[in-house]
Structure formats: structure tokens, C-alpha cells
């Protein structure tokens, strides 16, 4: 086999505690942009990001060398810190 191509995509959902509608419309685009930047920082491709008042959907392209648990931990840690500021 001359070459091999691998494409890994994961659909991730981050929800608010107790599914409360805390992600208000005025700052929702900033949160989505933050998730995109955080993903790029850890060499993950943010294919699509969106959501509503109680959760955020992310479609991420990850490399074969990434561990999904580490990606999730990094995104959760950085986004939670940003939100609480």
C-alpha cells in the first residue's frame, strides 16, 4: 500500500450543570469562538461548533496520535476556567 489516509471526527457535547439554561444568547458566539480557539491550541480541528442555552455541540477532527480523553479534559478545563472568569 503506497499511502494511508486516516480521518477521525468526534461529536462532543458539553452541557451545563443540571441542564440549566445558563448560556445566554448575547455571549454565546464568544463561547463558541473560545471553544474553536482552544481546540486549535491543542492541534484539534474545530469542524463545527454550535449550541443552545444549556449545551454546546462540537464536531472535532482529531489526529490518530491524540487521546480523546486528553482532548476532552483540556477543552473542559480551559472552557470552565474562561466561563468562571
Structure description:
There is one protein chain. This protein is an alpha+beta fold and 85 residues long. The protein has one domain (8-84): 2-Layer Sandwich (Alpha-Beta Plaits). 36% of the residues lie in helices and 28% in strands. It has helices at 28-41, 68-84, and strands at residues 8-15, 45-52, 55-62. The chain has a three-stranded antiparallel sheet, with helices on one face. β2 and β3 (55-62) form a beta hairpin. The radius of gyration is 14 Å and the shape is elongated. The N and C termini lie far apart (51 Å). The model has no long low-confidence stretch (mean pLDDT 92).
How much is the radius of gyration in Å? 14 Å
pLDDT < 50 runs, ≥5 residues: none
Globular, elongated, flat, extended or rod-shaped: what is the shape? elongated
Task: Describe the largest sheet.
Answer: 3 strands, antiparallel
Number of helices: 2
CATH architecture: 2-Layer Sandwich
Order of helices and strands: EHEEH
Number of domains: 1
Structure summary, number of beta strands: 3
Structural class label: alpha+beta
Share of helix among residues? 25-40%
Strand content: 25-35%
Distance between the termini: 51 Å
Strand order of the largest sheet: 1-3-2
Please report the first level of CATH classification, the CATH class: Alpha Beta
Average pLDDT across residues? 92
Find the CATH topology.
Answer: Alpha-Beta Plaits
